[in-house]
Amino acid sequence: MTNIPWLTITLVMPLGAAILLQLIPRNDRAAVKALAVLSTLATAGVVTGLLIAFNQHPPIPAVGPRPQDTALAFQFEEIHSWIPAIGATYHLGLDGLSAWLLALDAAVFLLGAVAISSRTTERLKFYIGLMLVTQAATIGVLLSVDMLLFYFFWEGMLVPLYFLLANYGDRDRGRATLKFIGYTVAGSLLMLIAIIYLYVHSQAAALGHPSFDLQVLMLAPGPAQAPITFLNIQLLTPIQFAFVAFALAFAIKVPLVPFHTWLPESYANCPPATLTFFAGIVSKLGAFGFIRYGLTLFPGPVHDFQWILEGIAILSILYGAMLALVQSDIKRVVAYSSISHLGFVTLGIFALNVNGINGAIIQMVNHGIVIAALFLVVGYIEARAGTRDLHEIAGLEKRMPWLYALFLVITLAGLGMPGMNTFVGEFTIMLGAFQASPLLAVLAGMGVVLACWYMLRLHQGLMHDPLTPAAEKVSDIGAAERLVLLPMAGLMILIGVYPKPIGDISKASASQYVVRASVPPPSLSSLNAP
Amino acid sequence: MSATLAGTLAILLFALPLAGCLGNALLGERLGRRFVNIVGPGVVLGGFVCAVIALVALLGAHEDARSTTVHLWTWFDLGPGALRVGVDITLDPLSVLMCLVITGVGFLIHWYAVGYMEHDESPWRFFSYMNLFIFSMLLLVLSADMVILIIGWALVALSSYLLIGYYYDRPSAVLAARKAFVTQVIGDVALVIAAFMIVTNLSVRSLNLPTIFHYAGASFPHGGALVTGICVLLAIGAFAKSAQFPLHTWLPDAMEGPTPVSALIHAATMVTAGVYLIARFHTLFDLAPIAQGLVACVGIGTAVMAGIIALSQIDIKRVIAYSTMSQIGLMIFAVGIGAYSAGMFHFATHAVFKALLFMAAGNVIHALHDEQDIRLMGGLGLTMRTTERCFLAGSLALAGIPIWAGFFSKEELLGLGFNHGPAAPILYFVGVGINVLTGLYTFRLFFTVFRGEPKTARTYAAHEAPPTMLVPVGILAVLSTVIGWALLFGIPGVVGPFILGSFLDPVFTADGGRLLTEPGHLTALLTVLLGTAGSLVGSGLAYEWWYQHRPDAQVIAGKVPRVLTQLSLHKFYFDEIYDAILVRPVRTLARRLRDVVEPEYADGWVEAVGRATAWMSDTFRVLQTGRLRDYATGMLVAAGAFVVVLAVLVR
């Protein structure tokens, strides 16, 4: 069992399905959809197996005497030579961080495959193909330990996404897609430069064994360098510049305010099926990057910029919440709520303690489930009422009792109701933030109150009050749609009632990232000494 | 009590209402009204039986061995030094008393609701929410871990939200529900931050309540800023839930819910959760005298304010709602001065007589086909004799007339206020004033509704409520009459005197707590006499003004300073103030962000980059002429320039 390359199998399965897809004739839409569901189901099966087999107390590879001299404990590792000339390897691994995100990935793509309407989507086969390739790329991002490999998947993800966003969706999708792609590519290119800097500069390269492996770059960083000066003004040190480049790439992907403006436009123009995975997993990869690469490669700069980043996180929480409060487009309400919630995740990460990072990992998963479900609900309503304007729809509870009940559960999860999954994450994140600075928790608490306000405004606005003309003709969701939403609502309650399993896996790695991030940063005075 | 018994009882107490909630929600519509009518109240009755068994087991145990904490399962565990939460439950006199009231009074209200909701189109939805409420409340009072307590606390708010907005096609109900929920969340956040402060500063990192109380004395210096801060935050949570100033404005609006909801949630149980919270955290409050003083002042202040507002309200349910706010103010005052047992005593009697008043009012509203304006009532005593008598029993209890329940509990807590609390005995005299106010508004309501001439034809057509709605009311009327002296003087052969105090006090003396010294016999007698005199004066004046009309109440109202009547009529303008300083600024700011900051700044520079690119390509496009000779010229010029630059640089 141990020598079966399970991670490669997980990675390749969606690609294999995409190739198989080419054998199916384009107009056999039922078969195309069946293949999509089967493929994502199979991936979900393998991922479930990985989670069950996951060792919650992995041996932590020590490489030196100090407590921080430990490599990250990856499981199911696979290392093969890839481009020997430059020391790039095909290195895959799974840890407590990526394990849950992998599970989320499998879940939201399965959801997307089930939710896609095979009757109304034009060019279904092309869509499914792109979706499967996107899944492979996101899995690659989560599993790769080699940074060149990571970058390959990170950028590769944009290719199928571009075609998905540009070809399927509402009228303004062209403009929205351009903004999204332009924005993310700009961030990624900065990150590439920083990766090359780390690679060239590391001790491994100095010793003649250059490597792109995260474990190597993290444990054998280059010697500290003095700040770059420009016109006699001291700027940042090179490592700080590299961190800023990484942080920009991730902040755009999350997105954090003020790098968020691609999001409302892209989300508003996206069909719900795409949003399940686009909002469900892709945006989480930015936060994933912050933990996996930000905390490990840049312990010094992380501390230098901790308060700026925490400030940006708080800004995102409050700004997103305020804007969600005054949108009339229901899709944009959800889009801005997403910005606010991801602010919470970022807040947890840069609290730089066990509670904060565990909370961030847990909240990424929770948010993925909730946001996917919210976009589906909003999509169902739009498809039936023919409008997305909150002021034109009201009183749906009478027309849609099923959707009402499920939407209620999802709304409660969206506002962080104690007893629901998101409360676990929010509570843990806020505790972590409180330990970093009590003020952060108080400000985040204001975000919680605002979240309650805008989520109820959305739910009550759509469901309650006397029926409007647009809502008159609406019918309740059918069995297929219930089949999609019921498991998600169930999961939100289940995690809320018994969150222990999810914490058991995340804590295996969260403490390791905390240790990595707490490596004392080299002080500038030590640089000046001979 | 053995751990096994305690665990079993707790699980039953959770499982029964939860099963009722799910059963009604999932099967209710299919199986019909009869199923719902049996399951809805049935599970609560089952819970009451469990609570009684727990009570018997507790009374059988030795006084010092009446607190059992059981670990059911681990909820969340991030390892040593990080967050750890267990589903732990505590059965002790305090939680068992709460359980008894929640399930006992709760059962009677559920029973009553079977009749009240007879013509409702979806009773399964109603009873599902009601059962959810009972579950949440039990989770709140039984929990021995602060995180689980917060979950129960929030679920209580959720079920309240669902029930306030039960008539969801009424915009006023929808708004009231949202207002209540948002206010509750403010309280939740305060509670969460209090939990953070406790867990990060306690010498043992834990949110387990017995652990917190055990180490509180060693971790927090008496009167220190830290413990004061924690207690103020806890108090804010309690104020939100118990509708105390400044977080009280949601309660009157919550009367949009069906009347049984008002009785169960917004009178008997949920709104007293704040009192429970402070009593439960008495170990911390005992360490923070400043916070205690604040709590006492807020309690008595709210009691006065709500009493004044109740005098001018015209909606029968709102009058009772403000009276609830006022009475809870007294309970909050009691726990604020450290008279925990007295506060819980008043909680128990109040739950009985206030549920009674709401349900009797419900009978009136039902008989008048949803009329709630008391100016259109009057003379209902003629047609609704039983309801009138029950309402009278409740009024006597509420006004604090001797031998009825409210008299005993209210005089006990006020009497303790004579010697204790901030600025004693000033707050005691304020309390006597509250007694006058209470007598006034209570009997104003009674006389206006039941006596005098019928005002509309509907009053003549009114008929007495059906037995399902009368029997529970009758039981509560009897209880309102006897429960006070039964608990204080005992019932020969069944319970001894001062049973409640001796039952509860050990809870409050654990972990180094001390009881308040009882006032001397003479002081006690005088305070009781004065307090009772206040009640009698208030009630008597109400009799003169609203029954005998000599002079008529209108004449009296004309003599009161206009400021006071306006304040009372407009509920001290709190809704307007909050709208002006909170709701509107937030909304205006949000609109500004949406209309100005987002398009012009956040997105502005992104668009600018796009425009710059477009401009550059437009500019350089001119060079792409497609003519060979232009390109050749360009190359020649560039090569020349290159040579020149090179020459300059090399030299």
The most extensive contact between chains is: A-B, 61 and 50 residues
Ranges of chain B with pLDDT <50 over ≥5 residues? none
- Biggest sheet character of chain A: 2 strands, antiparallel
Report the uncertain regions of chain A. Answer: 521-530
For the largest beta sheet of chain A, what order do the strands appear in spatially? 1-2
Q: Helicity range of the residues of chain B?
A: over 70%
The average pLDDT score of chain A comes to 87
Principal-axes geometry of chain A comes out as globular
Strand order of the largest sheet of chain B: 1-2
C-alpha end-to-end distance of chain B: 100 Å
Rounded Rg of chain A: 23 Å
Quaternary organisation: heterodimer
- What summary fits the major beta sheet of chain B? 2 strands, antiparallel
| Tally of DSSP helical segments of chain A | 24
Give helix and strand order of chain B, one letter per element, not per position. Answer: HHEEHHHHHHHHHHHHHHHHHHHHHHHHH
Question: Which class of secondary structure composition applies to the elements of chain A?
Answer: mainly alpha
Average per-residue pLDDT of chain B, rounded, comes to 86
How many E strands of chain B? 2
Fraction of helical residues of chain A:
over 70%
Give an overview of the whole structure:
The complex is a heterodimer of chains A (530) and B (651). By secondary structure, chain A is mostly helical. Chain A has helices at 6-21, 29-53, 96-115, 124-143, 147-156, 158-167, 173-201, 203-206, 214-219, 238-253, 262-269, 272-297, 299-304, 306-325, 330-349, 354-385, 396-399, 401-414, 421-436, 438-463, 469-472, 479-497, 500-517, 524-528, and strands at residues 75-83, 88-94, 229-230, 233-234. The longest helix of chain A has 32 residues, at 354-385. Chain B is 74% helix and 3% strand. Chain B is mostly helical. Chain B has helices at residues 3-31, 33-60, 93-116, 123-142, 146-164, 171-201, 209-219, 225-241, 250-253, 259-268, 273-280, 282-286, 289-310, 316-336, 340-367, 385-399, 405-419, 426-450, 457-461, 467-489, 499-509, 521-548, 553-559, 562-569, 574-602, 604-621, 628-650, and strands spanning 68-77, 84-91. In chain B, strand 1 (68-77) and strand 2 form a beta hairpin. Chains A and B meet through helix 7, helix 14, helix 16, helix 19 and helix 20 of A and strand 1, helix 5, helix 6, helix 25 and helix 26 of B.
